[in-house]
Specification:
Layout: E1 5-7, E2 14-16, E3 33-34, E4 41-42, E5 57-59, E6 66-68, E7 81-83, E8 92-94
Antiparallel strand pairs: 1-2, 3-4, 5-6, 7-8
The structure holds zinc ion (ZN) (4 copies).
Length: 114
């Protein structure tokens, strides 16, 4: 079946309907939000993930306000995604993840402190 283009959820660019990555804004979830733990699609406003029960609101490490688990903080706009610290992997994922969703290795945390 031919795929037709759909607008990216984040930047509005029309991209292939089966894209896993927006080529314009590099979003990993161009058609909506995903639970950062189990990757089930979730909607903004949901309190917890219906798949794994994880809370979908977190405290932003930059401004300390509560924000939805999107790619950016709702309050200050700071990015909430980090790259896997394993050089061969580098997969982009949610900052709270302890182990990389792609390679399974532990991620060195850069947040906190300061
Ligand atoms: Zn985009
Ligand atoms: Zn989940
Ligand atoms: Zn923030
Ligand atoms: Zn990794």
């Amino acid at each position: 079946m031919a795929t037709y283009k759909q607008p990216c959820f984040h930047c509005g660019e029309f991209i292939e309907g089966d894209s896993r990555l927006c080529p314009k804004c590099y979003s990993r979830s161009p058609f909506g939000y995903h639970c950062p733990a189990c990757l089930k699609p979730v909607e903004k406003g949901q309190a917890v993930c219906s798949g794994c029960g994880r809370s979908l609101y977190v405290i932003c490490p930059t401004c300390r306000q509560e924000t939805f688990v999107g790619e950016r903080c709702d309050a200050c706009g700071a990015g909430l995604m980090i790259h896997c610290t394993n050089k061969r992997c580098g997969e982009l994922q949610f900052f709270e993840n302890i182990n990389c969703i792609a390679c399974g290795k532990k991620i060195k945390r850069k947040f906190g402190g300061k």
